[in-house]
Specification:
Helix content of chain B: under 10%
CATH topology of chain A: Immunoglobulin-like
Number of strands of chain A: 12
CATH architecture of chain B: Sandwich
Oligomer: heterodimer
Helix content of chain A: under 10%
Number of strands of chain B: 11
Shape of chain A: globular
CATH architecture of chain A: Sandwich
Structural class of chain B: mainly beta
CATH topology of chain B: Immunoglobulin-like
Number of domains of chain A: 1
CATH superfamily of chain A: Immunoglobulins
Distance between the termini of chain A: 41 Å
Largest interface: A-B, 22 and 22 residues
CATH class of chain B: Mainly Beta
Shape of chain B: globular
CATH superfamily of chain B: Immunoglobulins
Largest sheet of chain A: 6 strands, mixed
Amino acid sequence: AQTVTQSQPEMSVQEAETVTLSCTYDTSESNYYLFWYKQPPSRQMILAIRQEAYKQQNATENRFSVNFQKAAKSFSLKISDSQLGDTAMYFCAFMWGGSEKLVFGKGTKLTVNP
Amino acid sequence: DVKVTQSSRYLVKRTGEKVFLECVQDMDHENMFWYRQDPGLGLRLIYFSYDVKMKEKGDIPEGYSVSREKKERFSLILESASTNQTSMYLCASSSPSRGATQPQHFGDGTRLSIL
């Protein structure tokens, strides 16, 4: 069974600084996908960034980027130039290629301080 | 944009009641999901539907059932509500991956309290 581990239940960062959220996963599959979802307080969960395991290049979306280390089964999220609107729960998630279902980590609560 | 609408943001029910949570999506997605979100536990899949009248158990189906009579609507049913079902419930939908994985789109969630 696939598992996703987020080892940081809570983190905080000052506005404009950079923060990295950790995620590790365990799978024997070779074809899979990884995601970071963002859930702002009392608001809808949205996809922040995703990575296909077969791609060596790390995904980037504006200020969000990932560090995908396939051999180490690590998928960390880096947020550059943090903004107050980045305050949210962040969930790392895994999907293997033959499934439609996501396996989520327990989440990291990120607070961006002014 | 994809719109996933959950019928209630907040709901309060009593122990033993039959509770219906409704979810509607407007993007003709085949896949629909019900999750439960609890602090420190993340999101856990209750049920998944990949087509009308088709359903598959997730990780925590006990005490729940689902109904998908129309493609756009996926209902979660608590047959006899208990206090340990007090939680945030999230609905999501997606297109089938078919070689290129599709993200799931979430509703705003229903915060359900069972007294």
